[in-house]
Amino acid sequence: MSTLNGKNIVLGITGGIAAYKSADLTRRLIEAGADVRVVMTTAATEFVTAMTFQALSGHPVFFDNSDDTEASGMKHIELARWADAIIVAPASANTIAKLAHGRADNLLTTLCLASEAIKCFAPAMNRVMWDDLSTQSNCKRLTDKNWFQFGPASGSQACGEIGEGRMLEVSDLLSSLEHCFKSGELQGLNLVITAGPTYEAIDPVRFIGNRSSGRMGYAIADAAREAGANVTLISGPSHLSPPEVKRFVAVESADEMQQAVMSSIKSCHIYISTAAVSDYRVADVARQKIKKTEDRLSLNLTKNDDIISAVANQQVRPYVVGFAAETENVAENARQKLLRKKLDMIVANDVSESSADKPDIGFNSDYNALHIFWSSKGQLEGEQQFELARKTLLARKLITLIANRFRDNSSQHAKDTA
User: Fold this and answer.
1) Beta bridge partners of 276
2) Which sign does the torsion angle of CA 35, 351, 347, 256 carry?
3) What CATH number is given for 190-285+299-417 in this structure?
4) Which of 232, 243, 236 is nearest to 210 (CA)?
5) Which residues are catalytic?
6) In the chain, where does the domain assigned CATH 3.40.50.10300 lie?
7) pLDDT, tens digit (0-9, with 9 covering 90-100), for 86-105
8) What's the alpha-carbon Rg for the chain, to the nearest Å?
9) Which end of the chain is less crowded, N or C, counting CB atoms within 10 A of the terminal residue's CB?
């Protein structure tokens, strides 16, 4: 499966004859499983029509001064947050210069400046423009800002000249973009990740559950796979399609999840517990459906075993990352949980109800905001916050942080035992 499957891609098109190739790029991105939104500069619309890209992508095209109600409704910040990656293809010398110097005078440059997504550009221009020292300097500025540069290629150009400056072929652009999602940060490591809710039976048709959708855990599993890890994903009930991990285990109850975790933990390097495991289960599950005969029904609940504590207390333990879904005192509750359960890292997220001044994040949302804490030798060592973003983007940022902390922890352990 392509690493672009399920990814949100913004395709930026600037003025240049190579814009005709972007139509094929749009089609190929969609064939790879990506969801594509197209943003065109005014100059781009003089080479190809917005209608072409609307037909290919199945969505309205975004461009300056658009009168389309649906297109105008998504502000540049929303589009910037929506994207997993932005690819500007073709990228003209003018747009490259704007992006290199942080100018934001149209929709495309504004959303690029406002986005934390992966950013790529594919230069396309006359060979003399490409060779100009200003263009070369601007490209270096962008790559120094962690932009990925694709090309250019060499060959015959629309102006009749031959040389470097052609936009890469679509197949090469697609391959380059796929590679951007493969960091190799966890190459060869074994990860066990739990996700989703657990359901605790009341009778054969009813259960106690929670609102977890599994989105964050599935996104982390996908990001870990892209980073080169061998991923075992243990999931409670979820309507999501599992990512293509090495091993997927479907469970229902907390007891089933515990058995799956403990049988998978022996060769695990990193354990990430995103699952919202039920704290309690019904002590005596009815064998038949309970009939509605009384005004009140009392359930006798008993405490479930704490799975993450069991993992953290293993004699030979993996690097343990927990999640703290809180509705109040989010940071303080997470810090206490980190130290009380002897975790290496904890990820706190606010799952309280949304309001007019609070965005829709947490359970059943594609977006979240995270506050991460980590410890060393039983003491709080550091923290970092990831602001509101799509869970797919947060997952990749979190995997990078976990990979860095895991390496630091391993190096320190090696020194302590030397």
Assistant:
1) 197
2) negative
3) 3.40.50.10300
4) 236
5) 159
6) 190-285+299-417
7) 999 999 999 999 999 999 99
8) 25
9) C
